[in-house]
Write a structure and sequence with these properties.
The complex is a heterodimer of chains A (about 230) and B (about 625). Chain A is mainly alpha-helical. Helix content of chain A is about 70%, strand content about 0%. In chain B, strands 3, 4, 6, 7 and 8 form a 5-stranded antiparallel beta sheet that branches. The N and C termini of chain B lie far apart (about 145 Å). Classes of the chains: A mainly alpha (about 230), B alpha+beta (about 625).
Chain lengths: ~230, ~625
């Protein structure tokens, strides 16, 4: 009899808790972020999305910067070489604006697409970079963790940017031409060979720059699309 | 060709001329690129440091190469940025492109290349300081605070998101040297609280791009904070004063009650006290005596009941034959020896404990129990005196009540049978007789009183009775009682008793070795105590003494109410059966008083007769009651 009573009591508790939560959830659903249709209010979630993505890219760039300076300490590539051919980043085929005016001049969709291209282009090289780093004994655990984090972040950032683009497309800010899953894949296959010949240090150098580009482009994009939210 | 020839000729001429003047010339020293900076990530400037010019006019040129291109360009603008600088305008600046820059110094004698430098514009951004720094004093209820606002440098384009700047401001009072720095993030306003009332502040602000260099500090802005009442501060001041005051009071209280607190916190350690231990003896040097009292009288301490220690006793030594006789007599008078508590009324000052009572009586049981103890029994030879039984039952605590029968008086053993003796003696009497104990003092005192005067008689009677023995009076207290018998309260008596008891203990010490016991055979009607020697216990007595010592007579009573007895010479065995006389029931106080107060100048009449019954009396016993 005691057992039955306990069961009943626990069931009652569970029921109460469920009721409470469901009521809460329902209230949450009912409320919207923009009760009134104020100007720009409906863009708030987009601005938040942008902020998050930008933060993510900033972090990614920070890690790459750290790794690069670490590499410089240990490897010290000779700077006295005049006319070295080095640093032909595999992403140089992607045309990117090299100045403010250029960046502001191109279309939003194009900018978004450039960002995505860059992110896709670095997915595999970073993974292999991490692999090679973990194999070498001279790298500390800290560095190998960073490289792993870096390669993960590229994945995450791409997903985040895709989400932003999706949101923008939903809101009608940009056309639907962006974010075709097909084109990044095509790009990837064509460039697959080049980065394998790059040295680790050059790889880091290129990625450091590209992550900076990504961050900057995202900022420009944000301030073009949602200028009133922190620009 | 001509140009080249002309150039060579010119150079040669130059050299010749220079050589003719006598100075030395050399190719220029190596220039160095000191830094390159971009204020807004759209243009940048490079500065170099020239080396030695070699004494000749030297020209400097900057060449650069862009990434992955072998094309060499020269600096487009040498002037805009000043001396030894190269300015790259927007058209020539490419971000995220690696520039390889070299400076060349040229003079008549040669060229020198500087070390090449790789730069990327993104990483050399150093913005201009923020502009339009504004300070305002605003009020939050009653407290002012400083509202600082500024704007980003004009050239840096933060609006388009091309550059992201983070700011930092610093503030200090005009007189101070140390700045107080506050990072402000990306915001362009800042609030500073906790201002000094009436203070003059300086504020500066600077900025930095997310990957770049800090700008210079902006020019200082001044602000004066108006006077205001700092409630918080005054509250703190009050609190401090109050607590200081409270502390002061507490300290003063502690100081006043220093002593009490000391007692409370650090109570005085009680000094060691050993019952029966006389430090004075130790100081006097009689260490053996001091310690022996511990061993004997006070160890093991069986009871703290001081009444146990109230022992009035008389130790008498009787030789063995005598004891046998006494035993006989004792048995005869067993009845009389019983405690008759009811009949005794041992109130101090009352006459119930009459003069015929003698000193301490030891119970029969006690005697039976501890035959080995030195129980001095002063027994009255109770021949045919049954009908005249008068006895006093006086019992100090744990000591059997004094029985004074007409025929037998028992005294309490003293030194040889020290305190432990007392305790085992069962208190035969009910508590009602505890009160009677005190009067027993008086009784004993009474008893003691008449004794001296009658010693000669005793001596006569008991001439051949005894080996000498000590006759000890535990009389000190008794004597006192005699003196003050009229007024003593019980407690006083008790006190005296207690004191005397301890004294008794002391008393006994010196005489331990020497005590022997006499047995009071009877108390004569003239308040005379007839003593018979009692054979002392072989363990505690010195057999030798039996042989050698004899009873003595009381010589006198000295000033200290001591009985001075003369030692008898020679050995006398056997005792005559003395004639027993009853002690008259006179007022013992009178007699005793008179007796005791008389100085020793009044000797006993029978001084001459030294062959007196009695033992050697330790005079120190009598002199003890000096409390």
């Amino acid at each position: 009899l005691k057992r039955e009573i306990k069961k009943i009591i626990s069931a009652v508790w569970v029921g109460i808790i469920c009721l409470v939560f469901s009521s809460r959830l329902s209230t949450m659903k009912a409320a919207s972020i923009c009760p009134n249709d104020q100007t720009g209010c409906h863009l708030l979630p987009l601005a938040n999305l942008f902020d998050r993505v930008i933060q993510h890219s900033a972090r990614m760039h920070g890690i790459s910067d750290d790794l690069h300076s670490e590499f410089e300490l240990y490897f010290l590539p000779s700077k006295n070489q005049i006319g070295r051919v080095s640093r032909n980043c595999h992403t140089s085929t992607i045309l990117t604006p090299n100045g403010k005016e250029n960046a502001q001049r191109i279309a939003r969709e194009e900018l978004a697409e450039i960002i995505l291209k860059l992110l896709v282009a670095w997915r595999d090289p970073l993974w292999h970079f991490h692999q090679s780093m973990s194999q070498h004994d001279e790298f500390t655990n800290f560095s190998s963790n960073k490289s792993l984090e870096m390669s993960d972040m590229v994945h995450e950032l791409r997903k985040g940017v895709l989400k932003v683009v999706e949101k923008m497309q939903m809101l009608g800010i940009i056309s639907n031409s962006v974010g075709d899953t097909g084109s990044p894949e095509a790009l990837l296959t064509s460039d697959s060979a080049e980065w394998r010949f790059m040295k680790d240090y050059d790889l880091l150098y290129c990625f450091r720059r590209d992550s900076n580009k990504i961050q900057n482009y995202l900022k420009i994009l944000k301030c073009r699309i949602v200028p009133k939210h922190g620009c | 060709m001509r140009k080249a020839e002309g150039g060579i000729l010119l150079r040669l001429l130059l050299l010749f001329m220079l050589h003719a003047t006598g100075t030395s010339y050399s190719p220029p020293g190596k220039p160095t690129l000191t830094r390159c900076r971009s204020p807004e990530k759209e243009t940048f400037t490079c500065w170099w440091e020239p080396g030695s010019d070699g004494g000749l006019p030297t020209k400097y040129a900057l060449y650069y190469r862009k990434e992955n291109s072998d094309k060499v360009f020269e600096c487009p603008d040498y002037r805009t940025a000043g001396e030894n600088s190269c300015f790259f305008n927007k058209n020539d600046t490419s971000v995220w492109v690696n520039y390889n820059i070299t400076v060349v110094a040229t003079n008549a004698l040669g060229r020198t290349f500087s070390d090449p430098v790789d730069i990327d514009v993104v990483y050399i951004v150093k913005p201009n300081p923020p502009e339009n720094l504004a300070l305002t004093v605003l009020w939050d209820q009653t407290w002012p605070y400083l509202h600082v606002s500024w704007e980003s440098p004009q050239k840096a384009d933060t609006r388009s998101g091309w550059i992201t700047l983070i700011y930092e401001l610093r503030i200090k009072l005009e007189d101070e040297d140390e700045w107080e720095e506050h990072p402000a993030g990306q915001q362009k306003t800042f609030n500073i609280f906790s201002l000094c009332s009436g203070g003059k502040y300086l504020v500066q602000v600077r900025c930095k791009p997310d990957h770049g260099f800090w700008s210079e500090w902006s020019s200082s802005q001044y602000v004066k904070v108006p006077e205001y009442f700092n409630r918080e501060k005054s509250m703190w001041v009050l609190a401090v004063i109050f607590s200081a005051f409270a502390l002061f009071i507490i300290t003063w209280l502690i100081h006043m009650n220093c002593h009490n607190l000391k007692q409370c916190i650090l109570p005085s350690v009680p000094g060691p006290k050993i019952k029966g231990f006389d430090e004075q003896l130790l100081k006097d040097g009689k260490s053996m005596d001091a310690f022996s009292s511990l061993v004997g009288a006070n160890f093991p301490p069986t009871t703290t009941n001081y009444e146990d220690l109230l022992v009035e006793y008389l130790e008498v030594f009787v030789p063995e034959e005598r004891e046998l006789m006494l035993e006989e007599t004792k048995e005869l008078h067993n009845d009389s020896l019983k405690f008759e508590n009811s009949t005794s009324d041992c109130d101090s000052g009352r006459g119930s404990c009459d003069s015929h009572t003698l000193l301490i009586d030891k119970s029969e049981e006690e005697k039976g129990q501890q035959p080995d103890q030195q129980s001095s029994e002063i027994k009255m030879d109770g021949k045919g005196q049954d009908e005249e039984d008068k006895y006093l039952t006086c019992s100090p605590e744990n000591v059997d009540s004094h029985q004074l029968s007409s025929e037998k008086v028992k005294t309490w053993p003293s030194s040889f049978s020290p305190l432990p003796e007392y305790s085992p003696i069962p208190l035969q009497q009910p508590n009602s007789h505890e009160t009677s104990k005190q009067p027993c003092l008086s009784d004993s005192l009474f008893a003691a009183g008449p004794l001296p005067s009658h010693f000669p008689h005793l001596g006569h009677n008991t001439k051949d009775e005894i080996g000498s023995s000590y006759w000890q009076f535990g009389i000190s207290n008794k004597q006192l009682h005699l003196l003050h018998q009229q007024m003593e309260a019980h407690q006083q008596l008790q006190a005296h008793k207690n004191a005397s008891v301890s004294n008794i203990g002391h008393l006994q010490l010196p005489s331990v070795r020497f005590t022997e016991y006499v047995e009071v055979q009877r108390v004569s009607d003239q308040n005379m105590v007839i003593l018979h020697p009692v054979p002392s216990h072989p363990e505690t007595s010195y057999p030798d003494w039996h042989q050698t010592e004899e009873y003595s007579k009381v010589k006198c009573v000295d000033n200290d109410n001591g009985l001075l007895l003369l030692q008898r010479e020679g050995v006398e065995e056997g005792m005559d059966m003395c004639s027993y006389e009853e002690l008259p029931e006179s007022d013992p106080s009178k007699t005793t008083n008179t007796t005791f107060t008389s100085p020793c100048s009044q000797p006993a009449p029978s001084v001459q007769d030294e062959r007196v019954v009695g033992g050697y009396v330790e005079t120190s016993v009598f002199t003890l009651p000096t409390y």
